[in-house]
Amino acid sequence: MKFDYIIVGAGSAGCILANRLSESGQHSVLVVEAGPKDSALSLKIPAAMLANLKSTKYNWTFKGDPEPELNNRQIIHDRGKVLGGSSSINGMVFIRGHAQDFEGWKESGCQGWGYADVLPYFKRLENFDAGGSDFRGDSGPMKVHRPSPSNPLSSAFVQAGVEAGYPQTDDIVGYCQEGFGPLDQSIYNGERWSTTRAYLNPARDRSNLTIETGALVERVLISDKVATGIEYKNRRGERVTALANKEVILCSGAVGSPKLLMLSGIGPKAHLADMGILLVEDLPGVGQNLNEHPDLVMKFKCVKPVSMWSKLTLVGRIMAGVEWVTRRKGICASNHFDVVGCIRSHPDVAYPDLQLTLTPLAIDHTTWEPINEHAFQIHIGLMQAHSRGRIELVSADPAAAPSILANYLHDHHDREALRSGVRLVRELVRQPSLDQYRGAEIFPGDALKSDAEIDQCINSETTTQWHLSCTARMGMDPKMGAVVDPSGRVHGIKALRVVDASIMPRVTNGNTNAPTLMLADKLSDTILGLPPLSPIELELWQHSSPE
After folding, report:
1. What is the mean pLDDT of the chain?
2. Homologous superfamily of 1-50+77-147+193-283+472-547 in CATH?
3. Of 77, 98, 145, 467, which is the active-site residue?
4. Mean pLDDT value across residues 522-535
5. Is the pLDDT of residue 546 over 70?
6. For a pLDDT cut of 70, what percent of the chain falls above it?
7. What is the largest distance, in Å, between two alpha-carbon atoms of the chain?
8. C-alpha distances in angstroms, 16 versus 44, 83, 143, 254, 305?
């Protein structure tokens, strides 16, 4: 089999490239996905996200290495194994990150990736149901929903932020990220809106697009430093060779793409030698620079019966299911992350490094079932972690899961920021707007106040926000850890590109799905030889520095 372009992975980035590269009809495109089709009803129901994460049918459920700073706990890293990738199983939070994230990309040597350069692509991909503006798009394939919080806890959370002295923002991806306001969702008419629905489904009937599911790519074929194709096992267990006339493009994510590079002989020389893999190109940065967002959840009793708990009885769940099936309405039609607070852990931090999200329900972290009482929880996500981890092979077997060490809180600044987050949330929930709802602090517990006591809770409960990234980062100097150039081309290898969250130089300030979509949409123009969209220069809000 021979195609112009071969795309490995039909996740968030791969679906966009499949659509864009096949759109003209001039190029033949093969998309190879390890997971199945996304036909399950549960993948459409926004409130079923926890059930989807528990399933290994659509989820790689990678088990991480023991984390030294987290009592050697092994964290499960959920990644989509299905058409649409993680966009088919994630929390449906749609946030771009802060403008300064992309200015940082540019300053690191990635020209063309500043905020003015990426904003037009964010706008092009987006169909925002609250309408277009200087910052927002309203005609793209990706449906984005602005929720109207119906639970009084959500409204009280935003008002408490204002009472605590933070700005109130009407759009955290617009003029002002810092502060409290609504949190947009990749939901449309009460259903999850994945990249399969936005990009792949409209392209399925094109004669020049071939989609193969249940196929595990084992290696990229390389001859004289040129990628010529791939070798994979199809769903019947047969080994297949597919050749590329133009390019092989890896879209397998922050775990899959570096893994496949290393299996193909591209990566750190010593590590590949240890695995018995013949070296093709010594790129020490492959699998390194792993960025992640640690997550700590604080839980509080709710003294008024306004949480979602009373709606989750057997009868309540049946009624909610009927309402969703018949009307696509009700509690099943939401991810229940309606509001957010983007704040700084310390006044000297340049822009928000903590993301606070409230859910009007508290979940038992071991069973993932609701706590049996009225309660609510607030996630503290550390958006600018200093710690860096790595991904390595455990063997040359393509079917073997890799070794993943996120290295949470290895840098002391991260622990200090999370500790500050606990105290800032306690200050937040003491505001007048939450007085009528706030009960006792379930976790960590009101009595735990010292640094050492808070650290014990951080060690025992910190987990992942499922935002692994940066393991094949963009940059100009391979000796300094760059794996691809700012066009996604792998250093030292022709006709091989990586296009997914692994090439971010540094993780963005928020959930990573939206910036991954932008990244793929922008690089689709590059691959097709089209000129980039004109930069959009806009004024942005900045906090006043302390005297």
Report:
1. 96
2. FAD/NAD(P)-binding domain (3.50.50.60)
3. 467
4. 98
5. no
6. 99
7. 70
8. 19, 12, 14, 17, 44
The residue type found at 107 is: E
**Average pLDDT of span 169-179:** 95
Residue 547 pLDDT > 50? no
Give the integer Cα–Cα distance in Å for 43 and 52: 7
pLDDT in tens, 360-382: 999 987 788 899 999 999 999 99
**Residue 164 CB-density burial (10 A; 0-12 exposed, 13-18 middle, 19+ buried):** middle
Do 336 and 48 form a contact (C-beta atoms < 8 A)? no
pLDDT tens figures, 79-94 = 999 999 999 999 999 9
Write the pLDDT tens digit of every residue in 9-30.
Answer: 999 999 999 999 999 999 999 9
The CA-atom distances, in angstroms, between 174 and each of 101, 159, 327, 534 are 14, 20, 32, 18
What is the residue extent of each domain of the chain? Answer: 1-50+77-147+193-283+472-547
**Res 158 pLDDT > 70:** yes
CA distance readout (Å), 147 to 162, 308, 310 = 19, 17, 22
Burial class for 259, CB neighbours closer than 10 Å (0-12, 13-18, 19+): buried
| 467 included as an active-site residue | yes
Q: Is 177 left (phi over 0), alpha (psi -120 to 50) or beta?
A: alpha
In this structure, the strands spanning 142-144 and 179-182 are: unpaired
- Omega of the bond prior to 360 within 30 degrees of 0, cis? no
Measured CA to CA, the distance from residue 21 to residue 15 in angstroms comes to: 10
Residue 314 is encoded by which pair of tokens?
Answer: 């057997």
What's the rounded Cα separation, in Å, for the pair 494 and 505?
21
Residue 422: both structure tokens together: 């606990």
Amino acid identity, residue 218?
E
Smallest CA-to-CA distance from 518 within 528, 463, 508 is with 508
Q: What is the pLDDT of residue 292?
A: 97
Q: What is the pLDDT of residues 251-283, one digit of tens each?
A: 999 999 999 999 999 999 999 999 999 999 999
User: Could you count the other beta carbons within 10 Å of the beta carbon of residue 6?
Assistant: 30
Decide: pTM greater than 0.85. yes
**Nearest to residue 418, comparing CAs of 388, 467, 376, 461?**
461
What DSSP line would sit under 58-119, residue for residue? SB--EEEEEEGGGTTEEEEE--B-STTGGGGTS--B-----HHHHHHHHHTT-TT-SHHHHH
| Cα gap 325→283, rounded to integer Å | 51
